Amino acid sequence: xxxxxxxxxxxxxxxxxxxxxxxxxxxxxxxxxxxxxxxxxxxxxxxxxxxxxxxxxxxxxxxxxxxxxxxxxxxxxxxxxxxxxxxxxxxxxxxxxxxxxxxxxxxxxxxxxxxxxxxxxxxxxxxxxxxxxxxxxxxxxxxxxxxxxxxxxxxxxxxxxxxxxxxxxxxxxxxxxxxxxxxxxxxxxxxxxxxxxxxxxxxxxxxxxxxxxxxxxxxxxxxxxxxxxxxxxxxxxxxxxxxxxxxxxxxxxxxxxxxxxxxxxxxxxxxxxxxxxxxxxxxxxxxxxxxxxxxxxxxxxxxxxxxxxxxxxxxxxxxxxxxxxxxxxxxxxxxxxxxxxxxxxxxxxxxxxxxxxxxxxxxxxxxxxxxxxxxxxxxxxxxxxxxxxxxxxxxxxxxxxxxxxxxxxxxxxxxx
Length: 416
Ligand code: EPU
Prior knowledge:
416 residues, alpha/beta, 4-stranded mixed β-sheet, 14 helices, binds uridine-diphosphate-2(N-acetylglucosaminyl) butyric acid
């Protein structure tokens, strides 16, 4: 298994480009299932999760062709509406095939994802919404077996805000008969990106980006060419990496309008930020100030940036409190940060971080994607060498992370 070795203490300086967003790419790839025509996607990041999704789609009979950041998909030959446990257990986003398969093919067999490192993460809201649209669903031997002649528009109120749940229901509703209203919908920018693609394919969607999405079903959708939005969590992660090292970086293609609260927190921490059309420039002070935060659905502070800010707070001046409200087990990075010398107390969904003057390199273990990113950030600051094991998590969600950090002057290498 690959490891990363990082020698800390080098200030990040320079310019890199932000990749396409993982969490927009995954639902958008699944949207190919909704049409017989060609979907041409640009700015698709090279990530393990994207490769897994392409394998699932190919297995279903979709023609997939990739050239660098461009992916062409043709689901005219869709003949096997089946997502096996073997894939779903490695990537929960596989559940995003369920809505589009039902909408266009009328049946689907998709493995239940089960729990994962950050929480139980059930998919009951996806199922409840599809049932409201008339799908017959039962669970058998760990699989969701779903059928529907043609889905019917419905009013759906989700019990909690769910990102992939909203995406799945939106993709189901675009081909349903009549109007679907999704209330308590997630407002994440990735939902808007998916809606923009679907609209380009001929769907009628209003309100994406608000908590009420109205969809008037159409009979068929056509092909489209679409460029995936830049990754806001990758952007936030590199801003944190620059911030902790007292760096000065420019992130090309970073979009500031979808990062408001993250940028606010970095300003509170003492960073100087310039927003430009071409990207975001950040200059960090010699020592950051502690910043408290509470995660919640967009536009509040993203749970996917919580771990990275814990790393910043570990060496900031002062005390920060962090409250995680989305996932029940998303503090696994705290104990690993403590191996580097961080002073963190965990009490249920709350963490208290007392900033220390220095971290010292050690061996640590990555537990999930964003936890791994927080360990990389802390390692860039820690004195001496840090070895991070199980970095396959990073490969799921960060395109060319070592290359990008090296380009900014980090001392980082992958050991195979
Ligand atoms: N939930 C339910 N039932 C459901 C759906 C969700 O109880 O049917 C609960 C979850 O257990 C969780 C909360 O609702 O406590 C919110 O979960 P959500 O469904 O919004 O999460 P998700 O759609 O599975 C996406 C991202 C995650 C990100 C979350 C929250 C993708 C592919 N994944 O997951 O991204 O953390 O939204 O913003 O979009 C990551 O990129 O590292 C990552 C984990």
